[in-house]
Amino acid sequence: MRKKVNNMTNFRKILSLVIVFIFCIINMNAQEVLTIENAVKIALENNYEIKISKNNLKIDQSNVSIGNAGILPILTANIVDTNSLQNSSQTLQNGNVNTLDNAKNNRISYGVNLDWTIFDGFRMFARLDQLKELEKLGDEQLKLTVTTRISDVISTYFDLVQQQQQLSALDTTIVISNQRLALAQNRFSIGKASKLEVLNAQVDLNADKTSVLRQKELYKNTKTLLNQILARDLKTDYKVVDNTEINKQLLLPELTSLAEKQNPQLVTQIINRKISELQLKQIRANRYPTIRLNSGYAFVNTESSLGFTSQTSARGLNYGFTATLNLFDGFNQSRNEKIAKIQIENSQLLIEQQKLSLNSQLETSYQTYLTNLELIDLEEKNETIAKQNLDITLEKFRIGTITTLEFRTAQLNYVNAKVRNSNAQFQAKLSEIALKELAGNITF
């Protein structure tokens, strides 16, 4: 009977463990695993700044039309109805006087008018070209926004990877500190260690737990920040892929060549110079005559209660043209042209300034990139050495041949080595991102 009870108890324990195991699997599957590619995709779809830039580009695209440039004619329809009540008096040539109180007069006219500028010194064509350049400017501004936001996503994502790795390192420290505390308590219980050794182990364990809590806080806050950049529910829980792949093949000449062709900030300055040149063309157009064609068809009907005629009406077509030429405007034309030329000169200076700044950033960022690559190799070796040292120190501590202080030093050296290795990989990734962003080539 007792055997059956024991079997039943064991069965219940096994069943409970199976249920807990299944529950853990369900929880693990419920948590989203966010890849860097998915993070970038979500940002491109949801980020508010990218959406606003896309809408601004749509506005610029809508503005590119021959009608907005002034090339097409303007056709208007109008109707005018005028009424009056007057006390009227008329004295005729023969001396007779006609009077009428509350004499009603009515005049109604309606029709359509056409106004078409057929020549304005080529201003309309320069305006159309300027609208096209403004569209290109909007496109580059969208690229700049997308590049900046993707850079933010990638940087924050790999910051989470680094923090996740550091959290794992601190968890490992907790395990080691627990082992150390258990060994100290066992040695104290058999009289081979003092109470001080147990207390020191407990203090160090508590310090490690504090570090873990701080790291968890930072990790959760960074996850919230990434959710904000992705413009989704801030409480969305997820895990990042614990892998930092670094492109170690970047070359400065190739990056410089790409930057000169597609860096959004540099391309923006080049487009601004073109816009300034087209603005000068529009100003110079004022030196030429402006010719407009005008035409219309109108109907006019007039009714009068007093006078020689009680009603008149007319309808028909009118047409003609207008030509104007600015002869003197107080030297404003020369002044405006001079200012436009200075703006073109400033645009060229901004291009040269941007090129110099871009090359400087590429040089410094590339040197940082090379340094970080060397640090990765160095810190990987340091972590391996620190792990071997910790394993040896732990065995010596078990048999009591080293002091608590020596063991704690080896433990901290290992944790610090893992943290430095993780940080070196993160810094190298940031350098890679910075270089690609400057080259206008940050894509996933």
Topology:
Layout: H1 2-30, E1 32-34, H2 36-46, H3 48-63, E2 74-91, E3 97-119, H4 123-189, H5 195-229, E4 238-240, H6 252-262, H7 264-284, E5 290-304, E6 311-324, H8 332-399, H9 404-438
Parallel strand pairs: 1-4
Antiparallel strand pairs: 2-3, 3-5, 5-6
What does this structure look like?
The chain is an alpha+beta fold and 444 residues long. The protein has 2 domains: 82 residues; 283 residues, Outer membrane efflux proteins (OEP). 66% of the residues lie in helices and 17% in strands. It is built from 9 helices and 6 strands, in the order H-E-H-H-E-E-H-H-E-H-H-E-E-H-H. The strands form 2 sheets. The chain has a 4-stranded antiparallel β-sheet with strand order 2-3-5-6, with no helix packed on it. A two-stranded parallel sheet has the order 1-4. Strand 5 and strand 6 form a beta hairpin. Helix 7 runs antiparallel to helix 8 and helix 8 packs antiparallel against helix 9. The longest helix is centred in the C-terminal third of the chain and has 68 residues. It is elongated, with a radius of gyration of 41 Å. It starts with a helix and ends in a 6-residue tail after the last helix. The N terminus is likely disordered.
In short:
With 444 residues, the protein is of the alpha+beta class.
Topology, number of strands: 6
Q: Round the mean pLDDT to the nearest integer and report it.
A: 88
CATH architecture classification of the largest domain? Up-down Bundle
Q: Describe the main β-sheet briefly.
A: 4 strands, antiparallel
Counting DSSP H or I runs of 4 or more residues, the number of helices is: 9
Helix content: 55-70%
Strand ordering within the main sheet: 2-3-5-6
Shape type: elongated
Radius of gyration (CA) equals 41 Å
Tell me what portion of residues adopts beta-strand conformation.
Answer: 15-25%
CATH class assignment of the largest domain: Mainly Alpha
Q: By helix and strand content, what is the structural category?
A: alpha+beta
Give the SSE string. HEHHEEHHEHHEEHH
In CATH, the topology of the largest domain is named: Outer membrane efflux proteins (OEP)
Low-confidence stretches: 1-15, 17-29
Please, how many domains?
Answer: 2
Could you give the distance between the termini? 67 Å
CATH superfamily of the largest domain: Outer membrane efflux proteins (OEP)
